[in-house]
Amino acid sequence: MSLVELAREKAKESYPMKMIESGGVRYFSLEKMNELGLRHLFSSVDVNLKVGGRSEDPRLHKDWQAFIDLMPKDYTEYYFMYQKHTDLSLAVDEEGMGEKVGLGRRVMESDGLMTSRSDFMLSSSFADCAPLLFFDPKKRVQANVHSGWRGTLADIGGNTVDKLLAEYGVDPKDLYVAIGPHIGFEDFEVDEDVALLFSEKYPELKGLVKRKGHTPEDLALNKYLVNLNYCILYNLLRKGIPAEQIISVNRSTLAHPEDFHSYRRDKEDFGLMMVLSRIYP
Question: What is the DSSP code string of 150-192?
């Protein structure tokens, strides 16, 4: 089976999320990553963890603290990102990097963080973009990545694999990757210009982009759908990560308002979720 065919088949799979409830608030995790030693939690629609313009909001501080308190409490540094939809992932193995914001330290101009420090906790924010968790249980290295459509187009997932190799000597064959909930194929509607960016960069991925609708009225709108999950999987597979070590939730944030925030669905009222991750026994 070719990598394209393998990615297409993997894109049909879905890995179940385990729900954890605390104080009437739901969170989610992936058992396989926990078993390997990457402790992590995804927040849900039950809380809005959007920091922008709210860093002094007591409600944000309370919800954020409650979220963090569910993780092992003996961390020495907590890093998150000022996400700009780039293809950049940075190593954070020193204390005091970035700027102090809220309960952690924000690293600028990056959409991925990686560390070998088991006492460091990482996080990224997402609504419709794809959160990616990387973990090498042999070298004990992790990465927490935000892959929006621009980052996916620019292959931030594959770039992160390259950076893990360069910084820590990680062998892709030892990596496990989780693709968290994000906007689904049938929900990610784009104009022709964005559709062309994907079809021209990834011409080998048949079915990555399709015209939306069937009726003359639908087709007149000239809208397209893009399968971000398929693209992310293909980019990870071609870096040499074994297919059985990539797990995808494959659950659309837009289509499940009962569980997830969605920028596309909620417009100016959108909230943000976070995924925390930490290497832990």
Answer: HHHHTTHHHHHHHHHHHHH---GGG-EEEE--B--TTT-EE-H
Q: What's this model's pTM, rounded to 2 decimal places?
A: 0.96
In the chain, where are the structural domains located?
16-184+247-279
Q: What number does CATH give the domain 16-184+247-279? A: 3.60.140.10
Cα 244-29-173 angle, rounded to 5 deg: 25
Residue in 157, 185, 198, 151 with CA at minimum distance from that of residue 254: 185
The predicted-structure confidence for 14-63, as pLDDT tens digits, reads as follows 999 999 999 999 999 999 999 999 999 999 999 999 887 776 788 888 99
Contact predicate 102/60, CB 8 Å:
yes
Count of other CB atoms within 10 angstroms of residue 123: 26
What Cα–Cα distance (Å) separates residue 280 from each residue in 23, 114, 120, 121? 24, 15, 10, 10
CA distance 157 to 87: 8
pLDDT in tens, 199-209: 999 999 999 99
* 3-class DSSP assignment, residue 9: helix
